[in-house]
């Protein structure tokens, strides 16, 4: 039986994490598992814009991953869902792009979003609120995790 890859949205922090000592191992392993077909990588025009001022090695890595990624555009549905997150007070207007990442992952049908942003995305209080708004707006729940939580390890039991 063939296992279908899990559709995962990766925000900007995961691409940068490949070159950050603290996040390098899990970020690198996540992208290796993308290349192996365990994950279907989704990213967005927002990530592309956020990567633009990044160091050259981050931009080059992102460009390389574009060969296996699906880039989603910012849609009216995503903007409306981001506004619902803001209206619910999950994040402030200053963190609207973080809410937009979650909205893009949701409206593009991802099962998961991975991020190293523990303040505005991967936070136990905010995860519950994002998913409550998703439910109220007719969207399915979204798994919100760090790459470390979703990668497979060699010695992992299923």
Give an overview in words.
The chain is an alpha/beta fold. It has one domain (6-148): Rossmann fold (3-Layer(aba) Sandwich), CATH 3.40.50.1010. The chain has helices at 12-17, 24-35, 45-51, 56-65, 76-87, 96-107, 124-136, 147-150, and strands at 6-10, 39-44, 69-72, 112-114, 143-145. Helix 7 links the parallel strand 4 (112-114) and strand 5 (143-145). The model has no long low-confidence stretch (mean pLDDT 95).
Task: Put the structure in a nutshell.
The protein is α/β, with parallel strands linked by helices.
Determine the N-to-C terminus distance.
16 Å
- Arrangement of strands in the largest sheet: 3-2-1-4-5
Overall pLDDT metric: 95
Integer-rounded radius of gyration: 15 Å
Q: What is the 3D shape? A: globular
CATH uppermost class: Alpha Beta
**Overall tally of structural domains:** 1
CATH topology name: Rossmann fold
Separate helix tally: 8
Number of strands: 5
Low-confidence stretches: none
Largest sheet: 5 strands, parallel
Query: What percent of residues adopt helix (DSSP H or I)?
Result: 40-55%
Second CATH tier, the architecture: 3-Layer(aba) Sandwich
Strand content: 5-15%
Helices and strands, in order, run as EHHEHHEHHEHEH
């Amino acid at each position: 039986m063939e296992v279908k890859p899990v559709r995962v949205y990766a925000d900007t922090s995961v691409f940068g994490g490949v070159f950050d000592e603290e996040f390098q191992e899990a970020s690198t392993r996540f992208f290796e598992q993308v290349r192996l077909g365990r994950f279907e990588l989704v990213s967005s025009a927002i990530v592309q814009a956020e990567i633009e001022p990044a160091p050259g090695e981050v931009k080059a890595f992102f460009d390389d991953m574009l060969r296996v990624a699906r880039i989603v555009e910012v849609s009216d549905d995503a903007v409306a869902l981001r506004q619902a997150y803001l209206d619910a007070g999950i994040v402030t207007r200053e963190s609207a792009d973080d809410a937009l990442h979650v909205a893009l992952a949701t409206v593009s049908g991802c099962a998961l979003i991975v991020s190293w942003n523990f303040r505005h995305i991967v936070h136990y209080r905010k995860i519950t609120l994002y998913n409550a708004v998703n439910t109220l707006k007719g969207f399915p729940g979204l798994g919100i995790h760090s790459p470390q939580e979703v990668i497979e390890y060699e010695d992992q039991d299923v």
